[in-house]
Amino acid sequence: MRSHHLVILAVLPFCVPALLSAQSGSQGASQGGSGLDAQPMRLDDPWRPPVNFVDENPAPPIPADVTDDRRVVRNYPEQPPVIPHNVRDYQISLNNNQCLTCHSRRFIEGSQAPMISITHYVDRAGQTLGGVSPRRYFCMQCHVPQTVAQPIVPNTFKDIDSLLSRPSAGGGHQ
After folding, report:
1. Residue 42: pLDDT band by 50, 70, 90 thresholds?
2. Which of 5, 34, 96, 137 is the most buried (most CB within 10 A)?
3. How confident is the model at residue 36 (pLDDT cuts 50, 70, 90)?
4. Is the dihedral of CA 140, 69, 80, 96 positive or negative?
């Protein structure tokens, strides 16, 4: 009995799309069209855009990177600096980190790029290393490039300086 249930559960993901396609084909045939050239059934759902089941939505365009090479003010203490230049096609792997060709101690004089923080040379045990610590090697875990994209969710974040400079209810500064 249990093996029959497992077989049904294994086959179910493959049958549902076929059943939906067949159902939309029969609806198209009943509306005067043939089952093959009829429009597939629409699946309207709050978690999915209203598209036909077999349609593919085009991907939204990738927003342009901010490439002015100007340092961006940080919003809070300990925020990793954002990347003010294009990093598309940068290679970061176990054998190569293209960020370090400009930002490591050895190359900053020639590249005029800011050196990575000395905290990136300290391992978990607090030992200072001669090279970048393995836990800090993959830069884009923390540092992200800036884009001109509009936020998807409204952002009401206020940095600490604007909160401290805000007048209090009593009329004076806190």
Report:
1. low
2. 137
3. low
4. positive
HEC string of 64-129 equals CECCCCCCCCCCCCCCCCCECCCCCCCCECCCCECCHHHHCCCCHHHHCCCCCCHHHHECCCCCEC
The per-residue pLDDT for range 53-104, each reduced to its tens digit, is 677 778 878 888 888 878 888 888 888 998 888 888 888 888 899 999 999 8
Residue 81: closest CA among 105, 106, 112, 113? 113
Integer CA distances (angstroms), 99 to 55, 74, 146, in order: 40, 20, 16
Other beta carbons within 10 Å of 69: 11
CB-count exposure of residue 103 (10 Å: 0-12, 13-18, 19+): buried
DSSP secondary structure letters along 15-82: HHHHHHHHHHHHHHHHTTS-TTTSPPPEEEETTEEEEETT--PPPPPPPPBP-S-PPPPPSSTTPPPP
Count how many Cα atoms sit within 13 Å of the Cα of residue 35 in the half-sphere of its side chain: 6
d(CA 97, CA 118): 17
For residue 38 the two structure tokens come to: 């009829």
Q: Give the model confidence (pLDDT) of 132-161 as tens digits.
A: 998 899 999 999 888 888 888 888 888 878
